[in-house]
Design a protein that fits this description.
Protein name: GDP-mannose 4,6-dehydratase
Organism: Streptomyces telluris
Mean pLDDT: 94
Keywords: Lyase
CATH class of one domain: Alpha Beta
Distance between the termini: 54 Å
CATH topology of one domain: Rossmann fold
Order of helices and strands: EHEHEHEHHEHEEHEEEHHEEHEHHH
Strand order of the largest sheet: 3-2-1-4-5-6-11
GO molecular function, one term: GDP-mannose 4,6-dehydratase activity
CATH superfamily of one domain: NAD(P)-binding Rossmann-like Domain
Helix content: 40-55%
Shape: globular
EC number: 4.2.1.47
């Protein structure tokens, strides 16, 4: 009799920026992927629609919603691992619609945990965010840094993290939490600063509209973040299960200096115009984030493979392609 095919892995949020890159990497590593895309009446698969046919031949797209327990149960049944990336992520929109963030980021995570628990899935990788730390109190920021949620988005993500911790402690759910610092690269939404700047320049603007230029961030190229997901998803359970891991470069750059660097890479002189709509409430702005990823490196051997400049060059090339740029609305404030 022929050997049975290995069990697939499931990815929630597969249609998004990081999710679509993770699907690609999982297929390249030999996995079949069951990819949840949020149900929509357009039958849109998001960024998965741009992946090569040879990748999508190994992907089963499931339209569903992490807010619905039945959708999640069906998605993860029979899988060997679940990568939970589905989330509402835009910080400005969390000021407008906080209930939506709790429903997706907290209740949605609860639904994933419950499904993994009851179906006995061997590994769950839960996605956190560096925003849960708030402005750095000590640098670099290790996983022992206090949690200080300065936006409804950050609070909802911290709520999901605490649920994940509790399900491991209470029910021995084999969950590992990855807490990426700021990820960037091709396919990212223009609600984030790097595609906002590059997209405006690629669209012909030379005066860039932004919010506060003072905050510093630790930017990781998306392929490095995806490598971190794979590292914690495949490492021996004894090394990672029940633990939280930061992923980041350990280097920080201010938004203002980032704009100058992008201008240099794009060979363009840029001016910046402040837009009050893009500035967070004063007590909600996270002023400094810089990562200590030594725990992840010790447990899995992971390390970033791309410099900021290398990642920016790849991102610039993506946005300079008219087909890619045409998928965005570069002339508006993307909340």
């Amino acid at each position: 009799m022929p050997a049975s095919a290995p069990a697939p892995v499931a990815v929630t949020g597969a249609e998004g920026f990081i999710g679509s890159h993770l699907v690609e990497a999982l297929v390249a590593a030999g996995h079949r992927v069951r990819a949840m895309v949020q149900y929509n009446s357009f039958s849109s698969y998001g960024w998965l629609e741009t992946l090569p046919g040879e990748v999508m031949d190994n992907v089963e797209v499931v339209l569903g919603d992490v807010r619905d327990p039945g959708s999640v149960h069906g998605l993860v049944t029979g899988t060997e691992a679940v990568y939970h990336l589905a989330a509402l992520i835009a910080i400005p929109y969390s000021y407008r619609a906080p209930h939506s963030y709790v429903e997706t980021n907290v209740t949605g995570t609860l639904n994933v945990l419950e499904a993994v628990r009851h179906l006995g899935i061997p590994r769950l990788v839960h996605t956190s965010t560096s925003e849960t730390y708030g402005t750095a109190q000590t640098v670099p920021i290790s996983e022992d840094h206090p949690i200080n949620t300065q936006s409804p988005y950050a609070a909802s993500k911290a709520g999901g993290d605490r649920l994940a911790d509790s399900y491991h402690a209470s029910f021995e759910v084999p969950v590992v939490t990855l807490r990426p610092f700021n990820t960037f690269g091709p396919r990212q939404s223009m609600r984030a600063v790097i595609p906002t700047v590059i997209g405006q320049v690629a669209a012909g603007e030379r005066t860039i509209t932004l919010g506060d230029l003072r905050p510093t961030r630790d930017f990781s190229y998306v392929k490095d973040t995806v490598a971190a997901f794979l590292a914690v998803g495949t490492a021996p359970a004894a090394d990672v299960v029940g633990r939280t891991f930061n992923s980041g470069t350990g280097e920080e750059i201010s938004v203002g200096d980032l704009v100058s660097l992008i201008g240099k890479i794009m060979d363009t002189e840029l001016e910046v115009r402040a837009d009050q709509e893009r500035i967070r409430p004063a007590a909600s702005e996270v002023m400094r984030l810089v990562c200590d990823a030594s725990r992840l490196r010790a447990a899995t051997g992971w390390a970033p493979a791309h410099t900021l400049e290398q990642g920016l060059a790849q991102t610039v090339a993506f946005f300079r392609d008219p087909l890619n740029l045409g998928r965005y609305k570069a002339g508006i404030y993307n909340v």
